[in-house]
Amino acid sequence: GENVEQHPSTLSVQEGDSAVIKCTYSDSASNYFPWYKQELGKGPQLIIDIRSNVGEKKDQRIAVTLNKTAKHFSLHITETQPEDSAVYFCAASTVTGGGNKLTFGTGTQLKVEL
Amino acid sequence: KAGVTQTPRYLIKTRGQQVTLSCSPISGHRSVSWYQQTPGQGLQFLFEYFSETQRNKGNFPGRFSGRQFSNSRSEMNVSTLELGDSALYLCASSYGLYTDTQYFGPGTRLTVL
Questions:
Q1: Among all residues of chain A, which has the CA nearest to that of B42?
Q2: Which end of chain B, N or C, is more open, meaning fewer C-beta atoms within 10 Å of its C-beta?
């Protein structure tokens, strides 16, 4: 089955700096890669996603890049703010077998310091 | 449009009991997936339902089961609870199948004593 690895497990940046979180996946059939932000006591919130026919996608301060050949994708947050502090999860999904099964990475605790 | 709702938000049970959790998807969404989140194992897929049929199942014992109703609301049941079942149970809904975007609810925090 699919396996998703995520690094780093913790990331501390100064407010205004950029943050980068990287994930690799194992199943070349995976074609959908969402990123979720989870704050304490809440469910994961979708922040951006990318499909395998696109190499990069941007939404204001957030961008995701995908390298299908290397089977890795990354989340980039620019001009970080204290409210960006949370746990971020990458995930991968494949159409093989149908359905919407997401395989998640282990999460990155992002801390934005003033 | 209202988001995914889950009830109850918190639950305390003892070993050997059973529990039923409920999930109401976003209006118009027909697919409901369930995930278990623990500090040790992270987020793990339990199962997915679409049009009242289970479409996908994760690697969990048969004590974990679910169903979906004609209005797309879903329930999951855990029988003979074990201490290791303590977790945050998350429900996610999507419009259709095949890597459609999933939106998560706030989760049900289950504590097994």
A1: A106
A2: N
